[in-house]
């Protein structure tokens, strides 16, 4: 509980950095500090990678719509956060209601999911279906940045990174063609060559590219839709771009 400690955006950034790889803390209370929008963005970046924090309390922190939008994007990509208290800030009511509605839907989905677990074992949960759902959410919301995609889904669309789907090789790794026939979507997947123990280097590259392209939109540039940060020795960090089917520029 860190409420009323005059924590500024700088302190929040340091705290978020320290918690990026935390695997035990589930509740973070930061009421009545001086976090503001810049500090809130640091917390949003934390939520993009942390999967243990389920409750975050940010009442009375001088957060405006800018910080609220960052939290909304993070809430879409985070599957562990269920409580986010934003009372006493300067976030417009419609945006706060949007965040609240999303969290409510997640809680209801989890309750249903837990009910399903009483009938099926966890080994039967389909990670491909989960990844597909996350991707559909990302593509259906124009303002939403890239979302976390399961490694199993990326393996699925690239046919386990098969040589037949290999498009190019570069210094960072390899580029693959991906396809989800059920969704009728095509992808380009950048698979970074750094794995354990060099995973942090790959994570840094992925995060920098995500930051550069998160809000970028142009009709001639493929949209960055999903990402994965490799966690195991046999996993690679990936960026997934949704692409059109109009052919290459060389054909025009």
Structure description:
The chain is of the alpha/beta class and 252 residues long. It is built from seven helices and nine strands. It has helices at 9-18, 36-49, 65-77, 93-117, 127-140, 151-157, 199-213, and strands at residues 27-29, 55-57, 83-85, 147-148, 166-170, 173-180, 185-192, 223-228, 238-243. The strands form two sheets. It has a six-stranded mixed β-sheet, with helices on both faces. Helix 1 (9-18) packs parallel to helix 2 (36-49). The N and C termini lie far apart (60 Å). The model is unreliable at 110-124 and 248-252 (pLDDT under 50).
**Shape type:** elongated
How many H/I helices? 7
What is the helix/strand order?
Answer: HEHEHEHHEHEEEHEE
Question: From the helix content, strand content and strand pairing, which structural class follows?
Answer: alpha/beta
Largest sheet: 6 strands, mixed
Query: What gap, in angstroms, lies between the N and C termini?
Result: 60 Å
Strand content: 15-25%
Spatially, the strands of the biggest sheet line up as 4-8-9-7-6-5
Task: Record keyword descriptors for this entry.
six-stranded mixed β-sheet; single chain; 7 helices; elongated; 252 residues; alpha/beta
What is the gist of this entry?
The chain has 252 residues and is of the alpha/beta class.
Ordered list of secondary-structure elements with their pairings:
Elements: H1 9-18, E1 27-29, H2 36-49, E2 55-57, H3 65-77, E3 83-85, H4 93-117, H5 127-140, E4 147-148, H6 151-157, E5 166-170, E6 173-180, E7 185-192, H7 199-213, E8 223-228, E9 238-243
